Amino acid sequence: MTYFIKTQWSIDLHDIHTIIIAGKAGEGVKKAAQVISGILMSYGRHVFQNDDYQSLIKGGHNYSTVSTSEAEVFSTSEQADLIICFDKRSVEERRVDLKCGGTFFYNSDDGDGSMGIGLPMTSLMKKAYNTNGNLCSVPIGIFCALYGHSKQELANIITGEFRKDRDENLALAGMIYDCVEERLAPFARKHIPVAEHLFSGNQLISLGAWTAGLDFYFGYPMTPASSILHYLALQKDRLGVQAIHAESELAAINMAIGASFAGARAAVGSSGGGFALMQEAFSMAGMVEAPLLCILSSRPGPATGVSTYTAQEDLFFALHQGHGEFARVVASPDSHERAYSLAAELLSLAWELQTPVVLLTEKHLSESSTCLKLQPEQVPHADVKIGLENDDYERYEITDDGISPLLFPPSDSVIKWNSHEHLPSGLRTDKSQPITDMKAKRASKIITAKQAVKKYQQIAEYGEGENIVFAYGSTVLELREAARHTSKPLHIIAPIYLEPFPLEELAIYAGRVIVVVDHSCTGLFASFLKEKLQTKILKNILRYDGRPFDPHSLATLLEEAFDA
Amino acid sequence: MRSLNTPKENTWCPGCGNFGILNAIKKCIQNLVEGGIPLSELVMVCGIGCHGKIFDYLSLSGVYSLHGRALATAQGIKLANPDLKVIVFGGDGDSLGEGLEHTLFAAKRNMDLTLILHNNGTYGLTTGQFSPLSYTGYKGLSTPQGSIERPFHPIPLLLEAGATFLARTYSTKLEHMVQTLHKAIDHKGFSFVEILQPCVSYNNTYQLFNEKVKLLDVIPRDDATVMALARNQEHYYIGIYKEQLIPVYHELLYQTQNPIRERLSGLQRKQKIRELY
Asked: How does pLDDT run across A207-246, given as a tens digit for each residue?
């Protein structure tokens, strides 16, 4: 069987080329996309991979999108040049995503042939496995044929990527390869890869924190934060980091506070629901002045919400974690690169300020992947104030900047951390003057925090001009990708630090007319900016169905907004 | 050895069972130090309730944690630095109500620390409401008609959860407490000591305990006997119910390493990232 394709791929103006692989959960959709991303990277092309999946283990409809270009890619496009579907449902769901002139493959063992090229994927898979197996290597075979790889190159790729069922995958990919005659080879293949590693946002957050000294991660599974726990657990021997799956989020954060009392650098992570459970201990970290990194990866809420999709509904929740008044830092990475550097900065700030800090992100950054080279040189060295070991040591010594010296057990000094209001010694108090003094000491850390964040980049700015768009977090990625497609240049302003908010640095935008792009239903980020900068909102572009914006659609919405 | 006293005014009710427990732990710590354990390696963690005030009366490093969360905090400390001997003080509301999950999981993991349960059968500090260990019919502000729930039996509960050292003692028996606490702290694994503790204001059990408390002669030979003796209402048996050595959590996790002492420096971490990525 050989299948001919009548395709004339027009590589678009911006050289963005998009591939979608769709099928049931458990069929190998994501892995196939990762392998293809890796091949593209080896050509010297940039990639961005987004995995759309449902909260189920087997079945349903999952799809992974890979957008690639010779230039950096910031987010995936919805319209694809190549779509490969494993089943009938995928054909129904994804057919609308095919670009004009694009190529569509379906599984002729489970499809009606109404469009595209049918390959008997299931029968070939059964032939290769001698029983039921996995369709993962089907797209790899199609890709290698279409994009001009030799069969030997395909075999090398499969051998390198599959340890389990290697022979079966070699057989299946080979049979698929033979079915596809056409060699489109749309890209020049350079032999210098842009980067060797494809990283998800959560992997970069994990590695950034680890470079800055992370010893312990305590968590309880909740998508889209779970992959931090999984990744660090897997890195245990390689990096010497401990990832503990506790009995609950309450246990996780309280364990983390205990670990920091003993001198270990600790972090916790969850999504909104798990964070809600951590509230009391977050407040305790403020009171006992525990250095603690908290990673909040958002999904649509309220309550259980939409488990495996993206949202920015937790902005005010992140800013107002915990009851009572105390200093905190909240910041959100606007790119994968920043996920690495910001996680490191925040862990260092937690230790300098001895207070809880929040890294706020979303599923779209946490679980999408891109290629980059890590820059460990940028990782700061935390300036931790350490006390002298003597009889006079007081854990909560009153100081001008509010930072009291730390000591860790075992120590000849008595080190008392207290969740009650306390005296400098750490003993409990309910007397008027000591309460006033200690509250003032903690409050002075709010000023200290404002100074401390100034040594880092607080705002990201892309483009220039009068068309000012504000966004934060992974929405900035969507905007940067959309910016390729607008006729007018966009001036994207992305605050990285949200608390302390860089008011002075953003003062030039006070009272200005701006467009805001946000993944909330009620325009939370616009409300925040109105309060902080008295900006006038020309248009609030909102998407709250859990999906990232398609760059082309977002570009159209932005043009409409600025033309109005 | 330096003094274990603090300048803090003691606010327990006169006659409170906590005084006995405070005296016993001080004496026990003195014995431990004389036995060669450095005072600096002992760390205390408390929850919130009358029991928790011991934090202010004992000059020892540690964390005055949240209500119910003492064992979670304590596990974090132990995991970070396994050289430390972590002693947790909990109330019956604190450790078996709000924080029950952490108590069961610390036992399940055989986490190498000690939980001292101040069992006064009531919520003293919040004015005498019924606790997870209050008897059926207990009348408190939240159960004016009498509690309709049955109490937990802490030793059988912790046995089933996986504790490897189980004991009960009584807050008037100073020497028995000192010996029991010493063995518990020495035990490698999760040790649990239930201290029968009268609350003079809301659950005065002095007379009851004085009549019914009886010494266990030997460690019961099997779990069924532990269950039967611990649930016995004719006599409240005090003594060691179980002592078993099995691997502890932190050694299963990272063998003989110490995550704090052996942590990589910033430079080593940067170098490793460069090598790997």
From this structure: 999 999 999 999 999 999 999 999 999 999 999 999 999 9
The answer to whether residue A240 neighbours chain B at the CB level (below 8 Å) is yes
In A, which residues are within 8 Å of B88 by CB distance? none
CB pairs under 8 A between A and B: 176
Q: Note whether B65 contacts A: Cβ–Cβ < 8 A.
A: yes
Distance CA A481, CA A477 (A): 6
Walking along chain B (277 residues) 10 residues at a time, the average pLDDT comes out as 96 97 98 98 98 98 98 98 98 97 98 98 95 96 97 98 98 98 98 97 96 97 97 97 98 97 96 95
Q: Is residue A413 part of a domain?
A: no
User: Residue A118's domain spans which residues?
Assistant: 17-179
Same domain, A373 and A500: no
Asked whether residue A6 is domain-assigned, the answer is no
Domain that holds residue B78: 17-276
Tokens of A41: 């990277």
Q: Is residue A454 part of a domain?
A: no
How many domains does chain A divide into?
Answer: 3
Which pLDDT score is estimated for A196? 83
Taking CA atoms, A301 is separated from A85, A287, B34, in Å, by 30, 29, 57
Q: Among candidates A123, A164, A214, A124, which has minimal Cα distance to A31?
A: A164
Residue ranges in A13-85 assigned as alpha helix (H): 29-42
**Section A334-342 average pLDDT:** 98
Q: Is it the case that residue A193 has pLDDT exceeding 90?
A: no
| Per-residue pLDDT at A2 exceeds 60 | no
Residue B43 belongs to some domain of the structure? yes
ipTM: 0.98
pLDDT value, residue A106: 96
pLDDT of residue A370: 97
Residues 394-453 of A with CB under 8 A from B: 408-420, 426-428
Which residues share a beta bridge with A361? Answer: A297
CATH number at residue B241: 3.40.50.970
Mind telling me how many Å the CA of A53 is from chain B's nearest CA?
28
CB contacts, 8 Å: B254 with chain A: 242
- CA-to-CA distance for A169 and A137, rounded, in angstroms? 6
- Minimal CA–CA distance to A314: which of A337, A296, A333, A340? A296
Q: For position A3, what pLDDT does the model report?
A: 57
Q: Name the pLDDT band for A184 (thresholds 50, 70, 90).
A: confident
The last residue of a domain, from among A116, A150, A179: A179
Q: What is the pLDDT of residue A4?
A: 52
**Which residue from A63, A157, A159, A172 is spatially nearest to A121, judged by alpha carbons?**
A172
Q: Which tokens is A92 given?
A: 């129904």
User: Which of the four pLDDT bands, split at 50, 70 and 90, describes residue A114?
Assistant: confident
SS3 B85: strand
Which conformational region is residue A148 in: left (phi greater than 0), alpha (psi within -120 to 50 degrees), or beta? left
Count Cα neighbours of B113 within 13 Å in the Cβ-side half-sphere.
Answer: 39
The tokens of B202 are what? 């809301």
Work out whether strand A497-499 and strand A329-331 pair parallel, antiparallel, or are unpaired. Answer: antiparallel
Partners of residue A284 in chain B, C-beta under 8 Å: 65-66, 69
Whether B226 contacts B220, CB under 8 Å: yes
CATH number at residue A297: 3.40.50.970
Residue in chain B lying closest to A340 (CA): B273
* Residues of chain B by 3-state class (helix, strand, coil), percent to 5: 40, 20, 40
Q: Classify residue A284 by its DSSP letter.
A: H
